[in-house]
Amino acid sequence: MTRFVDVSNMIRWVRSQGPETIIKDLIQYMEEDFRRWARFDKTPRVASHTPYGVIELMPTSDHETYGFKYVNGHPSNPTRGYQTVTAFGVLADVHNGYPTFLAEMTILTALRTAATSAMVAKALARPDSRVMAMIGTGSQAEFQALAMRTALGVAKLQVWDTDAAAVNKFIRNMVPLGFEIDFASSALEAVQGADIITTCTADKTQATILSIQHIAPGIHLNAIGGDCPGKTELDPSILEIGDVFVEYESQTRIEGEIQQMPADFAVTEFWKVLLGAAPGRTSEDQITIFDSVGFAVEDFSALRYVRDAVDGSEFFEDIDLVANPDDPKDLFGLVGALSPVG
Ligand code: NAD
């Protein structure tokens, strides 16, 4: 049997723990996996692009467990009542290839993207960062805000989105959680006095959400929205004035902000900072840029964490996903009998 966490169980489990606790715990799982980076099979994700958006498969393995996520990115979906990003994921045993764990990952992706942002910001942002500019207040936004509070104690949010309804939704969700929120009238207003800027917009184009005038010395830029070929958020000149950190360089060269830069443009894979093999922030005034696209190891960590966390709980069910004849060579026996089964 395969353990399955469906949408309603995921919602019940997240509510029972609280998203902030989950993000905090997930950061630990993720740091564990980033610290053993060399053990993982790594490949840029497999993407199928159409004018509508992209559908991607994100595989990895630590040679004991294999995992993959199915995820889409369709920036115009919300205008038709669909979400921009949806996902599900699987873990399997490497020794026999059987899937052991299956989970919804639309909610889990938002949690893991938030945990990734937090893990990186914890290492790269100034430790006294308390104010974050949030550009784009769609599905990911609340999770990102909670992550930055968990990682650094961010208490004030300066938000901007071209869609006023999305900002109102964000304020409605976040004010009860104790954040101080300023509703800016432009990206430029939102970034004034911010310690961290998170860009989290969705547009299937090379947008310029931020240009060099938005970036003050010492800022940590958490750029998560540009994650596809032809889909970026930053004016490339920003990348020249900061130090750029990435998840997995070969994938980010294709999908991240650095797709706008020459192939030899210098970046640092974040796992090296975590292991002390490369410098992170080296001065108060340094501009650190996390060019986030989302990598398979993060989904692996998230699935591993949920699998462990729901063990012994009521938040999963066993499903019959793999046909399993008594004689492993007699698959036909399951379907070939003349009399109806059951
Ligand atoms: P969403 O569609 O729910 O929200 C995006 C928001 O951006 C919308 O409210 C939209 O009005 C706003 N927006 C668009 N253009 C803007 C502009 N020029 N200025 C200000 N706001 C603008 O999408 P989402 O699920 O929140 O995802 C946001 C982005 O993050 C997507 O591009 C998605 O692909 C990406 N993403 C990245 C990762 C990662 O790991 N890096 C993970 C998940 C999602």
Number of strands: 17
State the low-pLDDT regions, or none.
none
- Percent of residues in helices: 25-40%
The unique ligands bound to this protein are: nicotinamide-adenine-dinucleotide
Tally the structural domains: 2
| Annotated CATH homologous superfamily of the largest domain | NAD(P)-binding Rossmann-like Domain
**Dominant shape:** globular
The CATH topology name of the largest domain reads Rossmann fold
Q: What oligomeric state best describes the polypeptide chains here?
A: single chain
Structural class: alpha/beta
Widest beta sheet: strand line-up: 9-8-7-10-12-16-14-15
CATH hierarchy class name of the largest domain: Alpha Beta
Mean pLDDT: 96
- Our estimate of the beta-strand percent is 15-25%
Describe the SSE topology.
Layout (H helix, E strand, L loop, with lengths): L1 E4 L1 H11 L1 H17 L10 E4 L4 E8 L3 E9 L13 E7 L5 E6 L1 H19 L6 E5 L5 H12 L3 E5 L3 H11 L5 E4 L3 H5 L4 E4 L6 E5 L9 E4 L8 E3 L1 H6 L1 E4 L2 H7 L12 E2 H5 L13 E4 L4 H15 L6 E3 L13 H4 L6
Parallel strand pairs: 1-6, 7-8, 7-10, 8-9, 10-12, 11-13, 12-16, 14-15, 14-16
Antiparallel strand pairs: 1-17, 2-3, 3-4, 4-5, 5-6
Helix pairs in contact: 2-3, 2-4, 2-10, 3-4, 3-10
Nicotinamide-adenine-dinucleotide (NAD) binds next to helix 3 and strand 11.
